[in-house]
Amino acid sequence: QVQLQESGPGLVKPSQTISLTCTVSGGSITSSPYYWSWIRQPPGKGLEWMGDFTYEGSKSYSPSLKSRISISRDTSKNQFSLQLSSVTPDDTAVYYCARGRVKNDYWGQGTQVTVSS
Fold first, then answer.
1. What's the number of CA atoms in the CB half-sphere (13 Å) around residue 4?
2. Which residues contact 22 (CB under 8 A, 6 or more apart)?
3. Which of 6, 99, 103, 106 reaches 20 to 30 Å from 32, CA-CA?
4. How confident is the model at residue 64 (pLDDT cuts 50, 70, 90)?
5. What are phi and psi of 105, to 5 degrees?
6. 110: left (phi over 0), alpha (psi -120 to 50) or beta
7. Is the pLDDT of residue 102 over 90?
């Protein structure tokens, strides 16, 4: 059973950077043929795919976030991370990490991040 767990600050000030980590257990982030994603859901809105990487480390980002987003991985810890810079209150959302791309079969529980001064 694959399990994912998000961690990071729940409150970030405007213009700062959201930094979140996803810790994966029960499966390796280097195992073929999986993608590993960051997805968010703003209050009252639908899910938004932010970006992902393949088991080989090839990354893809949402065009709307590409100038502000960075996804990295630490294969020794079986973790991957999200950094979203220059945040505004519009970036307030529940942030999820998940396995897969269009179809995500395992999800973290999600972590609320609020952008506010």
1. 27
2. 4, 5, 6, 7, 36, 38, 79, 80, 81, 82, 97, 108
3. 6
4. very high
5. -95, -20
6. left
7. no
**pLDDT reading at 49 higher than 90:** yes
Say which amino acid occupies 75: T
Q: What is the average pLDDT across 8-24?
A: 97
CB 94 within 8 A of CB 41: yes
Tokens for 7? 């961690």
**Residue 73 pLDDT more than 90?**
yes
* Per-residue CA distances from 14 to 6, 52, 70, 91, 107 (Å): 21, 24, 18, 9, 27
